[in-house]
Write a structure and sequence with these properties.
Among the domains are: 61 residues, no CATH class; 71 residues. α2 runs antiparallel to α3, α7 packs antiparallel against α8 and α8 runs antiparallel to α9. The longest helix has 21 residues. By secondary structure, the chain is an all-alpha fold. The protein is built from 14 helices and two strands, in the order ββαααααααααααααα. Strands 1-2 form a two-stranded antiparallel sheet. 66% of the residues lie in helices and 1% in strands.
């Protein structure tokens, strides 16, 4: 699931290479989990970066044009996992043109990843002041509030985001995660089941909802993913999501060791633009600080 309204595009799709999935007994342990070939930079991306560098070297650009180029290069750096360079570009873009809601939105995500929650709230507030219809800023602010432990406010943002599209499984999932930590497992499960019953449930993401509802086992989820590995990019994206949300479940159950392993697996495909990849690292850092 991306932080933008459009899906990621432009990545080369090599054939998937899956490790052998071996699950044993009722404990759903594996010897080798399903894996995708980690996504790699493409020639097109490298050429695009070089072209932007050439354009930025010109001295006849307007501030608006230069701001747009810095923003585009920042997005490219971000998609390749070069987030320090991306942040420099985004900040430079804002210095040239300060009224850019999309730039504030992604900077808010960066602040959240780094645990700077007050700065994240301010960035998302700036996005919504500039564009009050920017629903993904509300979603991202809700996630930041969730990680900041402000569950009531997080719930308000994520409930509003869910109501805009009640057929999106990821909106249900993040609302469920907040309600689980805030109101407890029983109430969160009941609300998730009710929302699912009122939704159109076509598409991959609903398997994750079924996993949280206990209607699909971990073994069945991973086996289904392993059997859908014809497109490596899609496989990498789905594994990123599956491992992240499985890790969240184990973390809630108090199994930190398994949660840590799954968060690392969520990051292994290099799906840098997905929120699940972004927040897997945040979760790992939080777990490291909580260890005795």
């Amino acid at each position: 699931m991306t932080i933008f309204t459009q899906p990621r595009a432009g990545f080369y799709k090599p054939l998937a290479i899956l490790a052998l999935l071996l699950l044993t007994g009722c404990t759903s342990q594996w010897t080798f989990p399903p894996m995708a070939v980690p996504l790699q930079p493409t020639l097109q991306q490298e050429v695009h970066l070089a072209r932007i560098d050439q354009l930025l070297a010109r001295d006849d650009l307007s501030d608006d044009a230069r701001a747009q180029l810095h923003y585009e290069r920042g997005l490219m750096h971000d998609s390749l996992g070069m987030r320090d360079l991306a942040r420099l570009d985004f900040n430079q873009s804002l210095s040239l043109k300060p009224d850019q809601p999309d730039v504030f939105n992604i900077l808010g995500v960066y602040f959240t990843q780094n645990g700077h929650y007050d700065a994240a709230y301010e960035a998302f507030d700036s996005t919504l002041e500039l564009d009050n219809s920017h629903s993904y800023a509300a979603r991202n602010r809700g996630i930041a509030l969730y990680y900041g432990g402000r569950y009531r406010l997080a719930h308000q943002d994520l409930l509003h985001h869910y109501q805009e599209d009640s057929d999106d499984p990821y909106r249900l999932i993040w609302l469920y995660l907040v309600e689980r930590d805030w109101k407890g497992e029983t109430k969160a499960q009941q609300a998730l089941a009710t929302r699912k019953a009122n939704a159109e449930t076509a598409g991959w993401g609903w398997q994750l909802v079924d996993m949280y509802l206990g209607e699909l086992s971990e073994r069945e989820l991973l086996e289904q993913l392993a059997s859908q590995g014809e497109d490596n990019e899609r496989l990498a994206e789905r594994l990123c999501e599956a491992y992240f949300y499985l890790a969240k479940r184990y973390q809630f159950q108090g199994d930190k060791d398994r949660a840590v392993a799954l968060y690392k697996l969520a990051m292994s495909g290099n799906v840098y633009e997905f929120v699940e990849h972004r927040y897997a690292l945040l979760e790992l850092n939080r777990l490291a600080y909580r260890r005795p």
